[in-house]
Amino acid sequence: MSNLNAIQLTGVSKSFDGFMALSQADFTAKWGEVHALLGENGAGKSSLMNIAAGLYAPESGSLFINDNPVCLTGPRDASRYHIGMVHQHFKLVKPFTVAENIQLGLPVGPGNHAFAGSHRQRLTALEQRISDKAAELGFTIDPRKTTESLSVAEQQRVEILKVLLAGARILILDEPTAVLTDQEAERLLETVRAFARQGAAVILVTHKMSDVKRFADRVTVMRGGRTIQTLDPRSVSVPELVRLTVGESAPASEYRPATPGEVRLQVRDLRSTGAGGHGALNGVTLSLRAGEIYGVAGVGGNGQSELANVLMGLPEPCQGTLDLAGFGDLRRASPEQRRELRIASIPADRYGTALAGELSVAENFGVGQIHSGRYGSFFNLRRKRLEADAAEAVSGFDVQGVRSLKQKAALLSGGNAQKLVIAREFSRDPQLVLVHSPSRGLDVRATAAVHGRLRAARDAGAAVLVISEDLDEVLALADRIGVMNAGRIVAEFDRPADRQAIGRAMVSHGELSHGELNLEGVNHE
Amino acid sequence: MNEQVRPVMLEQAAQATERPKQPLLSRRYALEIRQQLAWHRQAAIIGLALLLGLGISAAILIAAGVPAGELLNEFVILTVFDAQSLKAVLFQASPMILVGLAGCMAFRAKFWNLGLEGQMIWGAIGATAISLFEVGPPALRLPLMLAAAIFCGLLWALAPVLLKLRLKVNEIISTLMLNYLAINFLLHLLYGSWKDPKSSFPYSPQFQPFERLPELFEGISAAVPLAVVVALLALWFLGISRAGLYLRFVDANPRVAGAVGVPVQKMIIGTVLISGAMAGIAGFLVTAGQEGRLTQSFYQGYGFSGILIAFLARNNPVAALVVALLMAMLFVAGRSLQVFYQIPFSMVQLIQAILVICVASSDFFIRHRIRRVQGGES
């Protein structure tokens, strides 16, 4: 680490439609360090970094690079100052190859060796550079693969290679670990730390305390658009960091034992015949009782998404039955019937399946109960009543950032969007709650609020099924845990569960000992 | 550790600090994406774009030989304040309103119905068939013709929407191709069995007086109130009924719509059929209202106008009414320009196109904001 400032932002303010996203924020990152920017959703981390990367112009404040004032007109301009940002939502052209995507990000100009020779020669030369750079960073990637065929972790590597090959020495990573599994996140953070050790500057935007504690040299905490404090993460405890980001002590989640009732949902032998012979689901069987939270743990990509789709009634080719007590096969129920049956579905992909981002908060809320006739008959929509209900739900479920009920839902931060989904799904006192990755991308406080809602639903007698790739989340929430591996539930654990045993079941290849494989545990309580 | 980067940056940064003031033209501008824009600002931007389009159109008309002082006279005074012209405008507006609303409906369901002309033709064929084969008593003849027009227009829209939903056939292609089928079937009828036996010209026999849309008070055709009633129904459908909210979800994100319980397929099929039915009514209005018989070119220009009206109105039914009226004014004024200044009627289409381009480009300013960068380097 050196004492030279790589990038410095002072007194930066920015508002969107009258909403102050940033007010007088200060931030300094030095060459050679990994500098974490920590804060809750909507604290202004991404806005501040978007200004550093030239995407937004600040209303006031200044930007210094190497202690010299600069003015950025756009990301291209930022790239000339060796600033590169990897966004939370990747900006890759899907049908293009890795090399083509990286070529798009290269600086344009005469004398640039990347622009000598024919297109084919340039691409071949670039492919070589990509492979070399990847090897230097400690991973391999095929530059000729199309980006749509890559996993999320691989796409992220392409994004990083893209900014590095464009010459970035100040690397900004916006929530890089949100989409990765524990192992992938670890590898990534080790890679970027090595990159910083070579003299570059890495800014890590995150809300995960563990990333900060383990990988950051310094941390700047943001709250409500302001930078609160910059400190050394080794000299501060996790509760203290939490206190700084949240402003007060985070609500502690306390476990209370469940009082399970009758079996409400019996999932029998779900199988899908996926492409390439082996299906994503290979006989999922589980039973879910009223008044309990059943957690499905597992490494991502072991059939969780497919299971969630089948359960939530989304298109997914599959065989097997979902037997709902008092109804029959849930797979035959129309979305309308599912509403009548008071089934709440909270999918992982908030803006892909749960909310229409372009439509208003009120409309996104109201569509949940519209079939029931609460908002008038088909011939007359009672907007007043819908908006009154939406207003009540917004305050009841503490959805923040709603300046108007007519505001687009896409403008809500992740945590508040999730609260809105829960407000809608819970508006009719659900008997069955199906949840996939409920706290993905959420900060400490929002996660606690979401978990609190799920527990409250359980205590009110609902059967709750939580599918999550985040083992900490499953351990915190579930009364019973099923481990999903290669499209099946391979082991079940009652609370308190042994974390090590769950971990082994998650990664084993079917050769489990009989002690761990207690699928029949459901029946002999 | 950072020797290789620092000198470059220092140099660039030094340039930036040396020249704080710059001449106007070399100032730099940055583009930002807007998150949300209040509706009145959006309306103002679209309004400005329309004004710009009108300005360009006026310049072209003046260059083509229309005296500058006469423009306002021709386009506004003589079309709106002259009773005869106003009647012509309203008369012209009624089928325009219908095809415009037909466009709005289909586009709201994310269905690119380019088959408005085909559906119009079938609506007219259906109405004419009732007249030719003398179905029903004279008193019921007009309502029956209307019903036949609705049914035939709707039927012609059924195949593309089913093909799209079941087999993912692109509706832009299927509806466009079905137009040719409809046009050639129309010619087949008019040159064949439906030819007027009196004159042997390729048009159908003249409708009976009770088969023509009557003139109501002040000589205003019954087509006008009919169009207004259909427009009100469309307003109710999109604005007041539950279907309006459902359609907004289908339009915004079909996957979300399906997941939250909107009957996506039913909504798409229903809305597209309504779109076809409206185009069919437009065909009925032109044949039974204007021509009094089925001719081989009655539909020309309406298909494009319908899409254009829906686009300019941003699929908003109220705005579609206004735009359809303006388009009708443009048509009527265009005809008089043809007579008085020998300006070809294609000038009307040119003006339409200019307006569309201006409004389409204004979208950029709705989605982006341009900011001047203070003290940037050149």
Give the helices and strands, then pairings.
The complex is a heterodimer of chains A (525) and B (378).
Chain A: E1 5-16, E2 19-30, E3 34-38, H1 45-52, E4 60-65, E5 68-70, H2 75-80, E6 83-86, H3 98-105, H4 119-137, H5 152-165, E7 170-174, H6 182-197, E8 201-206, H7 209-215, E9 218-223, E10 226-231, H8 238-246, E11 263-271, E12 282-289, E13 293-297, H9 304-312, E14 319-324, E15 328-329, H10 335-340, E16 343-346, H11 350-354, H12 361-366, H13 383-396, H14 414-425, E17 432-436, H15 444-459, E18 463-467, H16 471-477, E19 480-485, E20 488-494, H17 499-507
Parallel strand pairs in A: 3-8, 3-9, 6-7, 7-8, 13-18, 13-19, 16-17, 17-18
Antiparallel strand pairs in A: 1-2, 1-4, 4-5, 9-10, 11-12, 11-14, 14-15, 19-20
Helix pairs in contact in A: 3-5, 14-15
Chain B: H1 6-18, E1 28-33, H2 39-63, H3 68-80, H4 83-108, H5 116-132, H6 138-167, H7 171-191, H8 223-240, H9 242-252, H10 254-259, H11 264-291, H12 302-312, H13 317-341, H14 346-367, E2 368-373
Antiparallel strand pairs in B: 1-2
Concise synopsis of the structure shown:
The complex is a heterodimer of chains A (525) and B (378). Chain A has 525 residues and is α/β, with parallel strands linked by helices. Helix content of chain A is 33%, strand content 23%.
State the main characteristics:
heterodimer; A: about 525 residues; alpha/beta; Rossmann fold; 4 domains; 6-stranded mixed β-sheet; 17 helices; globular; disordered C terminus; B: about 375 residues; mainly alpha; ABC transporter involved in vitamin B12 uptake, BtuC; about 70% helix; about 5% strand
Describe the structure.
The complex is a heterodimer of chains A (525) and B (378). With 525 residues, chain A is an alpha/beta fold. Chain A has four domains: 1-82 and 169-179 and 200-250, P-loop containing nucleotide triphosphate hydrolases (Rossmann fold, 3-Layer(aba) Sandwich); 92-168, no CATH class; 253-342 and 429-525, 3-Layer(aba) Sandwich (Rossmann fold); 355-428, no CATH class. Helices cover 33% and strands 23% of the residues of chain A. Chain A has 17 helices and 20 strands. Chain A has helices at residues 45-52, 75-80, 98-105, 119-137, 152-165, 182-197, 209-215, 238-246, 304-312, 335-340, 350-354, 361-366, 383-396, 414-425, 444-459, 471-477, 499-507; strands at 5-16, 19-30, 34-38, 60-65, 68-70, 83-86, 170-174, 201-206, 218-223, 226-231, 263-271, 282-289, 293-297, 319-324, 328-329, 343-346, 432-436, 463-467, 480-485, 488-494. Chain A has a six-stranded mixed beta sheet, sandwiched between helices. A six-stranded mixed beta sheet of chain A has the order 16-17-18-13-19-20, with helices on both faces. In chain A, strands 2-1-4-5 form a four-stranded antiparallel beta sheet, with helices on one face. In chain A, helix 3 runs parallel beside helix 5 (152-165) and helix 14 runs parallel beside helix 15 (444-459). With 378 residues, chain B is mainly α. Chain B has a domain at 95-341: Orthogonal Bundle (ABC transporter involved in vitamin B12 uptake, BtuC), CATH 1.10.3470. In chain B, 70% of the residues lie in helices and 3% in strands. Chain B is built from 14 helices and two strands. Chain B has helices at 6-18, 39-63, 68-80, 83-108, 116-132, 138-167, 171-191, 223-240, 242-252, 254-259, 264-291, 302-312, 317-341, 346-367; strands spanning 28-33, 368-373. At the A-B interface, strand 5, helix 10 and helix 11 of A face helix 1, strand 1, helix 9 and helix 10 of B.
